[in-house]
Amino acid sequence: MSQATATPSLESLARISGSAPRMASLADKLQPSTILKVAGEIKAMLAAGRDVCDLTVGDFDPKHFPIPEKLRDLTKAALDAGATNYPPSNGIPALRESVQRFYARHLGLNYPVDSVLIAAGARPLIYALFRIVVEPGDTVSFPVPCWNYPFYAEILGAHGDAVLCSPEDAFQPRPGALEAAIKKASLLIVNTPLNPAGTVTPRAAVLKLSEDIVRENEAREKSGRRPVYLMYDHIYWMLSFGVEHVTPCALVPEMAKYTIFIDGISKGFAATGLRVGWAVGPTDVIGKMNTLLMHMGGWAPKPEQTASAQMLDDDDAIAKFHAVFKPALGRRLVALHQGFQKLKAEGHPVDSIEPTGAIYVSARVHPFGRRAANGAEIRTNEDVRTFLLEAAGLGVVPFQAFGVPGETGWMRLSVGAVSEAQIESGLARLGAALRALV
Known about the structure:
The radius of gyration is 23 Å and the shape is globular. The protein starts with 9 loop residues before the first helix and ends with a helix. It contains 15 helices and 13 strands.
């Protein structure tokens, strides 16, 4: 018998390389998350035994911030009771009705149950909304800094219109700042409290943009054009600190025809891994979003839906949880902000903005033109990030990851995965590193 030709292993065959095209053009445009890249570096340092205060992740470490006991126990009970089959594509009726009641009690928004759509977290809902109201070539407008909205626009072949906000305005749009964007957009996005800035959109700005949207859509209806919709991403609204959270529909009821709320349990209950989110909006848009998600299989797990329905109806349990959860977050946010302000008062090139919502502090470190103790010159935001990580053991994310151009030194600091002691020691290391600059 002749010697058989050696068969290549599946492992080698699966490691494809070469110049011939194998995927659609979109694949070449997709970029990995900057935040996940930074997180990978930090994990490597922690594995090597380095003391790192990880302020990068928009998540909660269960050691510091466990989910509500009631939500945990109800999820286990639902699993034990056999809630393991497919839920309805738009969410179990008990949860949709619970969200309906929750919005009526806490936000003064009285919607029909057909306005509520449940999904596996906020992301499928955001994607579904984009697909339903945005055509290729349309404009999607959003204030910057912002979360990943530009990537969704790119996936759809839409034009992303970034409206740059300034630190003087706490990175929030001023009243009227979105007027030009409203006139050209198919979808306008507002996120409040804001990831990454940790600040809340003022009432006057929400009122002005709502009035402008209604006025614009009255004109569009007369000319037979599709309306501009507002995606109001307020997934952090339960985490407002000392400021008012307002909604467009409470200020201008006519906005109910054009506003789609994005929300869920992930932030307000520190339950990012349970994957229960919801959209609330006009029934025609919500219905089509449901049809799209029906084909994608974007529903939330049934045990978590069952538990969330009961949790949202229990105001006492929510208040008990928030009485511990929110002050613990607040202490960390205040410690970071005050720590940066103390360093600024000592003459160091740093600054910060008072946090009023979410789990973030906007902080600026700008020793540009100076050198770290290891001799490396600091010229860019990436140099600042590297300096903070290597010289101070602080993991941060530059605002460039959130669409802000230029080398300004602004960074996002997240408190969801660190202790107060870690913040204290991290600030002490930061002070020492700044004093060592030459």
